[in-house]
Amino acid sequence: MTTAPHDGAPHDGASFDGAFTDGWLRRFADAARATEPELTALDQQSGDGDFGVNLNAGTTAALVRLDALDETGRGPAAGPLDAAASAFLDEVGGTSGPLFGLLLQSLAASAEAAGASDGRLTTPALAEGVAEGLAAIRRVGDAEPGDKTLVDALHPAAGALAAAGPDTPPDEALRHAAEAAWQGVRDTAGLRARQGRASYLRDRATDVPDPGAVGVALFLTSAGSTVTALTPYLSPAMS
Fold it and tell me: In the structure, what pLDDT confidence band is assigned to residue 117 with cuts at 50, 70 and 90?
């Protein structure tokens, strides 16, 4: 498995509270902005061509809500995740907004339950939140692994988090989840789409990684680093 590059972005690794999730989401916004042209190019080959724009719009809207949080709201890990979930659910069109909103909403709920006493994120909460987000996305989108959708990145990521021990630091667990997600992204290049617009393109979308799966991998990678270009992550599939 190719290991995702890691830039060692600083975060409060000792507490994993709202400062951690706030930084995670801000790096995700930076990644969405930096890679929007590449995401658009991918989606033009397999979809409506608007995924990069929608993802950037969602993270930009999330930043506004993060900035509006006071210090109390930013304290618990669930606060920034819930704010970002609302931004995606309320302000982003297309398919990607609601699906990413569901994932963030599930993560926020699990984080809130796990951190009821001290507001901190745990690896079991991450595993539960991603698993529940995956289940919700599969219900709404009627997608299965192998359909060439974001599920093909989220499903292996959920498996990696479930396999992590309960005492695994959340940033370490997320790094393994991101690696599993990127492998899932690269694997989508060999699949024929069975859902969405790409399913009508047949072989024209073959050899093109699914943009939604890329978005999931970007999100998970942003827990520890900022992605500025997709080539280092996609090159095994694109060569």
Answer: confident
